[in-house]
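Slide 14.
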Amino acid sequence: MSNQNKDIDKIISSYKPPFKKTKAEVWGEIISKIESRSKPATYRIITFNRKFYYAAASFLIFLAITLFVADKSYKTYYVENGAKQEIILPDNSIVLINSDSHFSYSKLTWNFKRKVKLNGEAYFKVKTGNEFIVTTPIAQVQVLGTEFNTYSRNGLFETKCFSGKVQVKNKTNKIVLTKGKALSIEVKNNKSKQFNFDHINNKDWRNDVFSFDKKSLEFVFDELSRVFDVEIVIVIINNIHERKFTGNFEKESIENALDVVCLSMQLNYRITNDKTVIIEE
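Slide 15: predicted structure.
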């Protein structure tokens, strides 16, 4: 006996005809169940477009190579506390980077766009040519060919123009500076100020001379820490946020610099070791 016949006998023997149904109706239901059991399974076949697959793979390979080349072409510098570093850019522009500063640019895109990133302080001697852009966390400086100094850290920004002219742009302002003009920005207080400076006889960190004009004590001690590569610990000082220092000193020794600042501000200091200074009233 075939399997199909066995199924029919099994279904017939177990089937109880419902009330008021004819034999023909019952037989039709039985046949329907048998057919449903013997119906072959169906499968869904998914096919891939080979051209699309190869295009996607090629794109991923191209992207990986591009990112690898871009990463290798990126030049990044960090100058440690107490140091300075001069670098020459691909167009022979010169940059002198101050201590505790980050500086970077892409060699890959340099011929198309002269653009550098700065977090810290640097002095630029830019060769005449296409637009030269310095981006910082606070503002952007744009020039063609000029000399200027840019400082940007801890919410404070300052640019001094020594020759030519520069354009400083942030979220709210766009200001053009010519030689002897400078701009400072305080992010915390949302303040900006333009002022003049002696661009001919000016001596600054490039010459190991440090000048402060009504700068907060916190700012001054922060700079001292950077210049001499020491940790400065400030014990509670009354009205420290309101007290301003004006003066200058040369980078001879940490003791000489502390004498200039602390004596004029009626503060005391003690050096506990070669790397730690305690400031107190």
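Speaker note: Residues 208-280 form a domain with the Phage tail protein beta-alpha-beta fold fold (CATH 3.55.50.30).
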